[in-house]
């Protein structure tokens, strides 16, 4: 018997699209709210909007969890994965930035590299966290060709 694949390319592509939509929503709401509120409040509004959209699209579109019956158990798991992924992003971005800065890169270049590498790590951490913990889609993956039950 063949084990399920660690990554489902189609699911991962949908997850990345979901992330782009959530990040775009976060920015749009932040900029819109900034017309009426302080920067700090606008950021919170953007984060709330991005997180809500990310949860809904991840659940429905990326991971195909179409039943809202399980949302009460998925939401806390989603938040745990989001928190761990955000902490991973921050730590990697800071460490890479400091490392590259100490090796002669300009501040802008070092921070940009840190952000990009951190964002890549966050994407992978989030994907695998949601695949294995939040939505557990790894259980539904095909186990190989020609397998019978």
Give a topology summary.
Blueprint: H1 9-34, H2 39-62, H3 71-102, H4 107-134
Could you write a compact summary of the structure shown?
The chain has 149 residues and is mostly helical. The chain folds into two domains: 8-62; 68-143.
Textual characterization of the structure:
By secondary structure, the protein is mostly helical. It has two domains: 8-62; 68-143. 74% of the residues lie in helices and 0% in strands. It has four helices and no strands. The chain has helices at residues 9-34, 39-62, 71-102, 107-134. Helix 1 (9-34) runs antiparallel to helix 2 (39-62) and helix 3 (71-102) runs antiparallel to helix 4. The longest helix has 32 residues, at 71-102. The radius of gyration is 18 Å and the shape is globular. The protein starts with 8 loop residues before the first helix and ends in a 15-residue tail after the last helix.
Q: What is the strand tally?
A: 0
Counting structural domains, the number is 2
Helix content: over 70%
Class computed from helices, strands and strand pairing: mainly alpha
Largest sheet: none
What is the general shape? globular
Query: How much of the residues is beta strand, in percent?
Result: under 5%
What gap, in angstroms, lies between the N and C termini? 11 Å
Instruction: Give the low-confidence spans.
Output: 144-149
Mean pLDDT: 89
Structural Rg: 18 Å
Number of helices: 4
Topology as H/E string? HHHH
Structure keywords:
2 domains, 74% helix, globular, disordered C terminus, mainly alpha, 149 residues, 4 helices
């Amino acid at each position: 018997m063949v084990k399920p694949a660690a990554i489902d390319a189609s699911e991962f592509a949908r997850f990345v699209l979901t992330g782009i939509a959530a990040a775009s929503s976060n920015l749009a709401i932040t900029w819109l709210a900034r017309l009426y509120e302080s920067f700090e409040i606008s950021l919170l509004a953007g984060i709330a909007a991005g997180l809500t959209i990310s949860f809904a699209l991840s659940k429905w579109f990326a991971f195909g969890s179409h039943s809202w019956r399980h949302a009460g158990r998925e939401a806390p798991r989603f938040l745990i994965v989001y928190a761990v992924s955000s902490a991973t992003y921050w730590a990697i971005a800071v460490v890479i930035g400091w490392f590259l800065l100490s090796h002669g890169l300009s501040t802008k270049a070092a921070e940009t590299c840190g952000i990009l590498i951190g964002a890549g790590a966050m994407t992978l951490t989030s994907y695998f966290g949601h695949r294995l913990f939040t939505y557990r889609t790894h259980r539904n993956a095909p186990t190989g060709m020609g397998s019978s039950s």
